[in-house]
Design goal:
The chain is 56% helix and 13% strand. By secondary structure, it is of the alpha/beta class. Strands 3-2-1-4-5-6-7-8 form an eight-stranded mixed beta sheet, with helices on both faces.
Length: 277
């Protein structure tokens, strides 16, 4: 699907590298068919040495090169980058945006290009275990949809949605989700250290426990409540710990956190549209 397709990455940060790594290591795209663009030349040298891709500091050059142009810059610089691409995208090219909060209408307004895929990946994409939710405009052809799906599949799992509003929800749940998991891990490790474990041992116990629990959840095909009940004996240690977590309103706090992230994602999208009005 991607054989001989030329890809341009506008922005060479962590997520761009995760995509490049997945595409190159899985043999989906040859390095010579990938170009990255970023103002930091030392970053370009790193990517060239590690993956063999081309690199430039000129967004025009990258856009002219790419049949698929990946927007992978920071959200705060997107408004400056998008106008630079106008006139440098061929009519048959595809824009694929991984910029959080950047709505399709904003990308279309600033570039004048109608074939757009917007997606929300997350940081586990760096190790091929990502979760990406994506959508596409009607001007994206079936071939281009297949190409986008293949690219995002190189990062882990992917899910297509018809309604762009689901992207803000995905930002709050799976996009920001690793931060919640890391905080929970950190708190467990700190609790282990408080009890007397060394930090190294506490980390080992928590990491393996998290990994094993996730694998059980994948294989068991049971509701999380059922899995929790399986390890909660009446009057036991798990019951005592869970009582404290429920008393501390863990579910409520977590739900509020996700909703806060959701509101923030919608706000950022609204803000960008107001700036263009």
């Amino acid at each position: 699907m991607l054989q001989d397709t030329k890809l341009a990455f506008i922005g060479a940060g962590v997520m761009a590298e995760a995509m490049i790594k997945g595409l190159v290591t899985q043999g989906l795209v040859s390095p010579e068919h990938i170009i990255g663009s970023d103002p930091h030349l030392e970053r370009g040298q790193e990517l060239h040495v590690q993956y063999g891709i081309r690199f430039t500091a000129d967004n025009h050059e990258a856009a002219d090169f790419g049949e698929i142009v990946v927007l992978s810059v920071k959200p705060q610089v997107l408004s400056h980058v998008l106008p630079e691409l106008r006139g440098h995208l061929s009519r048959s090219s595809l824009i694929l945006s991984i910029v959080a909060g950047a709505r399709i209408s904003s990308i279309l307004f600033n570039t004048g290009h109608p074939a757009i895929v917007r997606c929300m990946p997350n940081t586990p994409a760096q190790v091929g275990k990502g979760m990406t939710v994506w959508t596409a405009t009607p001007k994206v052809s079936q071939k281009q949809r297949g190409q986008a799906q293949a690219m995002l599949g190189a990062l882990g799992d992917e899910l297509f949605v018809e309604d762009e509003s689901y992207l803000d929800m995905a930002t709050a749940l799976s996009g920001t989700g690793p931060a919640y998991v890391f905080l929970f891990m950190e708190a467990l490790i700190d609790a282990g250290v408080h009890m007397g474990f060394s930090r190294k041992v506490a980390e080992q116990l928590v990491l393996q426990t998290m990994e094993g629990s996730i694998e059980i959840a994948r294989q068991a095909n049971l509701h999380p409540a059922q899995l929790r009940n399986m390890v909660t004996s009446p009057g036991g240690t798990s019951a005592e710990a869970l009582y404290e977590l429920e008393k501390g309103a863990l579910r409520t706090i977590l739900s509020k956190a996700v909703w806060a992230a959701y509101r923030k994602s919608k706000y950022l999208g609204d803000l960008s549209e107001k700036e263009e009005a």
